[in-house]
Amino acid sequence: MPVPDLRYVTRVLTRTIREHMRTSPIWAPNPAPIVSPRSPEAAGDAHLSLFLYHVARDPALTSVLPPMPEHGPQYAPMGLILSYQLTAHPQLEDDNAAEEAQIALSAAMLALQEHAMLGPDARPGGVDVFGAVGITDPNVRFNITMQQVSQAEAIGFWNPGDSAPRLAVYYQVAAQLEPLEVTRIGPRVLSYAAGVFAGGEPRLYAAEARLDLSRADGTTERVVLSPAEVPYGGRLSLIGGNLVGDGVALRLEADGWDAPVTVGAEWAVQVRDGEIVARPAAFADGVPVPPGLYRARAVVTRSFTGGDGAVRTVEFLSNPMAFFVTPNATQLAGPVAGIYTVEGQGFAPPSVPAAEVEMTVLGQPLAQGAGANPGGGEFVIDSDTQIRFAPDAAWPTGRPLPVRVLVRGASAPPQWVTL
Q1: Is 6-177 assigned to CATH 3.30.2000?
Q2: Geometric angle at alpha carbon 40, from 19 and 98, rounded to 5°
Q3: How far is CA 299 from CA 254, 302, 327, in A?
Q4: 0.85 cut: is pTM over it?
């Protein structure tokens, strides 16, 4: 089925590559890639460019007739073959950057291989890319085929003169354009009207957190958690569509709150390319945000001018998306007099009873001490940024043990201790 113009095809393809790579096992340690529709020469800041360089009629559809006699043949859907060049761009001039570009190209090829028959039911990276770019027709389909371009043809096409050959892959995409529907027969026009908004309501599809977790051997591992479990100061990513307007805000809901809260500058909210990025803080617009389960909504503001010339503003509210805010354990030190210290944030929120703060070592819960210093197998809360604990004599020695702080069931990133 057809789409209004070529940009929708390109947007679907670039978004498919981006969302697939975001969760690809060979690319996931890196942030979501930038996939540009610009030519390779003009897309140096992007990880990949998907450039439409040629358009031709699809010979299989040149004889398709209009569906109704009152439509002229010029209004029949136009079957096209679109030719794209997929190119990876090293971000630096070194060997590591060159290898990363090859990884990006590999992940992009796998994305187009997996979604060679691309329709609205596809969910690369769990995202409805068709809805995100504004395609609502459930019958739209794109057929994607890698072209067999020889080495000589590729060099002749894209590497004039003495410039070095460019690593690129070539694709053909079968799509249809639908011209503006115009009928020759119809009723008289009695009045004119215009819809207020062309875009749909904002939608959120996923909540993700990318964390660099400490391993037992002292190295770090980047993981992607969805639904998101993000510590204070971490990166919360809300993936969605139709997040475009005069303003976009992030609104929080929680059980026990009297009303939703719109976060302020302390959450450092940014909106870009169908994604809302925020960094959770201990407060939102003056309201305490202790660790726990929350629901996020996107609030998109759009303005329009009415028939009377007055400008009116309408707020569109997205669906809720659940995520966890967790305490943040940043350092474990000790022992000093047999006591270890964990430093971080969110260990003693003012609105949370001390009984809802827990600590585990090797998955085993510690008792909360009543004195100034913890006894064996106990912990004490010194402040919102510090907890101390003493080992139990039964714990194993000589190997790293995971230490976790939990507040209202939300676990901080683990730290490790070797006794």
Answers
A1: yes
A2: 75
A3: 16, 10, 26
A4: no
